[in-house]
Records
---
Amino acid sequence: MRFFDCNVGFGQPPNAAATVLRTAEELVRELDFCGVAEALVHHTAIRHESAQAGNCLVVDETADHARLHPTWAILPPQTHEFGTVHEFLADMRRHGVGALRAYPAEHRYLLNGLTFGSLFEELVPRRIPLMVGPHWAALTQLLADFPDLTVIIVGHGDWGDDRYFRPLVARYPRLHLDTSNYQTPDGIADFVGQYGHERLVYGSGFPPFQMGGALLTLARADISDEGKEAIAGENLRRLLREADP
């Protein structure tokens, strides 16, 4: 399987994780050790310092590493911290950024159409993936307002979150889930049996989760080899091919 991790961070966090990879070079060595071919990455400064700092650092530090694909955080267009929506999208194209991340709690905004309507109206036809943590009430309202938005829910809880996300998966065909903390017994197999393997993407959630956990969970899942290949990397590659920043 050619693993493509959708959810990896590097940099020095304020509270040390079990493993800290401070640079892109260190991250590449860890990917090699775990047998991961590529990764969508963010710099930990994106959450713990500022979106602006994290966005700049991830582009600078991944520039010489073709296997590392930078992701950026979003901020409300009304504050003009990234310029206009079209200037932000142009900057994404220039720096090879193919996916975005939302941190509503850390960055102190409401993830809804009132705040982000002008941006999300551009993301929908461009099919740019937006990665969001398990903010269930906000996600429910967001998808009701933008049902065709391409969303990847990352880092959802390991026990029982199916009751939150399965109603959303059933209704919104552009909604996907990462596997970083999906440890429910036979959860992947049951999910694939109901919704198909196209809606899951491999992610480790590193840090704070170790890369090997999600690798083992997928490798041991009771699904076809075709399904494992798709989840391991092909689904994410397809989403990024479809995106047109």
Note: Strands lie at 3-10, 36-43, 68-73, 99-102, 130-132, 151-153, 175-178, 200-201.
---
Amino acid sequence: MTKCVVVGMSGGVDSSVAALLLKEQGYDVIGLFMKNWEDDDSDEYCSSRQDFLDAASVADTIGIPIEAVNFAKEYRERVFSYFLREYEAGRTPNPDILCNSEIKFKAFLDHAIQLGADHIATGHYAQVRETNGLFELLKAEDGSKDQSYFLHRLNQAQLSKAMFPLGKLLKSTVRTIAGQHGLCNHAKKDSTGICFIGERPFREFLNRYLPTAHGQMVTPEGQVVGEHIGLSFYTIGQRQGLGIGGIRGQGTEDRRQHEPWFVAGKDIANNRLIVVQGHDHPALLSSRLSALDSHWIGGTAPLVNHPYAAKTRYRQADAPCRIACSGNNCTVEFEQPQWAVTPGQSVVLYDGNICLGGAIIEQGQN
């Protein structure tokens, strides 16, 4: 019997081509458009209405049915509430990671199975491989688009049902395929906003949900150089929006006196934002980090003192490291110091091309 694949279609070119390729491969394909955000859902920031029209147009072009489903309640309970709690605690979460594990590969997967799906598919740039009954998450062939970082919290049950048709393709090839088949969104701009919320002024958006508590911006030595509007609104490594570009630090070398300022830390107890001058200031570099709430795709923790590589943020180059785990906690030591290691973000571990899983960064250490 022909296998049924339900494809998450966002209205973008990637998921559209994923559906097209599966249709051409002979699968029984059903499109599913997810609406997961309803607060201030306007065309200005959250273009879900136009996205659905694009997805429906593509479905019509390639000849598959499409259904719209609303997971706004699940998104708010499982993703957005966590997102706000983390920011309120002064950390910087990555909602796209939780969105994948809780919405795209849980709520969506459950719904797809009810529709009779054998598998689900998305437009992610990643690959799945089964080896001796174990499902592995692999990097995409297009290293500049690889999204395994965002998928590292998937489990064996989720990966066993997942298909990533774009895993071996370059992004340029995907757009070419879309154009050749007359898909309406072949030249559509990629979305870079918060998962399902869209691209919007981030500080203004957070301000609607979190209280502001002004405080001092200080150097590591305690010199007051400015005022912040609330620790929740800043992240480690941030340069823009500090408002202290013309201030010189005391005791710095001449070459540093005109360098830009960066957020280097948060003193939660005293409501102080720690800032430093210079991209390569020692306070921005970490040779090791501690992390919590680890998740390993294969079900077992990585080997102690084995040479691995890790990313502490998306699009970062793989950094050689070694890891030691104790329960759900772990410590990662890097061969070279890493820049702007950020509490709340994820450290994701790789063994060559295989994504092993990861953990939530607690803090970086010099």
Note: The mean pLDDT is 91.
---
Amino acid sequence: MSSVFPSPPAASLESVSTPCLVLERGRLTRNLACMAATLALRGGRFRPHLKTAKSADIGRLAAPPPEGAITVSTLREAEYFAHHGWRDIFYAVGLGPGKLPRVAALLRSGVNLLTMADHPDAAAALRDFAQREALTFRTVIEIDCGDGRAGLPPESAELIAVARALGPYFAGVATHGGHSYEERDPTGFARVAQAEADALRTAAARLHAAGFPSSVLSLGSSPTALTGVDLAGITEVRAGVYMFWDVFQAGIGACTLDDIAVSVLAEVIGRPAHRPNEFLIDAGAFALSKDISTAKLGPGRDAGYGLVCDADGNLQPGLRVTKVWQEHGLVVSPAPLAPDAFRIGSRVRILPNHACPTAAAHDRYFVVDHTRAVLAEWTRVNGW
């Protein structure tokens, strides 16, 4: 196994090609330690979600293999992490029949893969495939605890039908409190966390009464994982964006701007003389994403397409990316910029609105630790 911190390349943020993804190692390790300590005190088993990080180097810090249990959101991630030594993996997206051959390959390779379904047809397709291929699946039923994305309400009559369709492959229930992102304070996060736990307990009790005891009760989101809600009966907690955080999470109060561990390094490529409040950077929609989630936070809290820092990571008050094209980003200041500020060729770092889609645009992290020296390059996996 390679070192968690591989041999550093001879580079600095002045010499790497832009745009690129910068990872502050100190902030990352602090975020990981904070979540791990919080959940250890609450008594919950932690299964970090690596859909944001998508990196074996980061995974080794969050949940070292082979004992570490992790969550993924694509089979490409599952295959990648299995290749790097993980054996306990939860593929936390509803499993369609078209993906069953890839799941079979993972199971045959020795991966203890937990899968998920929320419809009798999907469950029956999984059961028939498992029996035909002589495979042992472990599948949870997805429960909708209020997010409205996928899953069955805990009181749904269809819940028992899905368990019956799964038969011996039924393992329990799982949910995701994604609507915690609509909250704006710890009280709201705790309310969603309570809804997560209550939904799982209700669903598990109904299933148990019907003859389907649950060995897995899995829940989580980064804002709710940090609350103090009682986890009695819950077997595991999942969270992912907490590793990096982002401007939106800071906006809803789940973290602070000082917790954000990733940024996009960009070069200044334009200073229009007739627009002294603006400059252009070489990072646009393809490097930053088009996520403008902070726009719904209210007046004065809209970060546009990202907040602007200098090359050392120091926030530049008032500066934000207000417009993006594919490869261009427009930075606007509330006041005219000094002629010698942000010269052509100088570099800035953009804090992302939503770390997940921003990171997905890049194939590696340039790892730093509060300086411009690049300590390592950590590759990441993309695709499905």
Note: The longest strand covers residues 315-324.
